[in-house]
Every structure is written in structure tokens, then in C-alpha cells.
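The instructor's notes for this session suggest beginning with a concrete chain rather than abstract definitions. Hand out the sequence below and ask the class to guess, before any prediction is shown, which regions might be ordered.
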Amino acid sequence: MRRHQAPLYRLAVRVLDDRQEAEDVVQDVFVTAWRRLPELRDDAAVGGWLYRAATNRCLNRLRDRRALPADAFEQLPDPRPGDQPQRVVEAAAGVHALAAALRGLTPEQRAVWVLRELHERSYAEIAEALGTTPVAVRGRLARARADLAEAMTAWR
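After discussion, reveal the predicted structure:
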């Protein structure tokens, strides 16, 4: 289960935009998994179960607070010695614009986008994590991409 801790934490931070809340979600998921360990016999299924539990807890927390706070992309990579200052500033502004656009998505669209684009999960894995169908995942992802493309028009 340890190998799942860092990816689950990254997922929760990106969906929730709150490191402390992400830590709480991951801890809750692992406590629940520990309690349900006898039921989780299939090692291959444990990863999927953990992702589903973490995603559902994140979505529940988003629904509870109904607003998305500061961006999940606050840690920008350090500029390299040869980078031009203007490019560094532009890149940071682009990341902040993307974070703002992500906050405009519904919690479900945002979760689908994060799982697909940042965690490179398959449609089937995302559907399992969200308790829906791959067709619904495709629809939500298409809508999320369209909304993000519209919001990011100035950055093209």
C-alpha cells in the first residue's frame, strides 16, 4: 500500500487544492483500507479500490465546501540558469491561468481531467474510481477539455 501513498496524495492535492485536506483524505483512505483489509484480498484490485476511495472522498469534500480555493499548482519548477526571465514569468502566469480555469470546472469534470491528464489513468480506471461508465468519463472529459480550451484561449 505504501507505493500508492504518493500518487494518491498528488491526486488529492490536485483535486482539492489543499495540502492539509489532501493529507486527511489519504489518511482516511488508508485507515479505511486497513479496517477492510480482509475484504481486499486481491492485490491487483487494491490500487483501483484506493483510487476510487480517494477520488470519492475528494469529490465529497468539494461538494461540502462548494468552492475551490487557491491553485493546486503552487509549486512551479525552479527556473534553469539559462532561462529568460520573461519566459519564466509567462510560464508561471500560464500555470496560474490553468489553475483558475480548473477551478471553473465541476468537481466531477475536474476529477476526470486530473485522473486522465495528470495521472494518465485509462477511461476504465477513471470510471471505476468514480463509480460511472467509460462513456460518461469520455463525456465529462470532453466537456472539461472544451471548457478549459475556452478559458485558455488567450494563452494559445
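Then share the key points. The chain has one domain: 2-155. The chain is about 70% helix and 0% strand.
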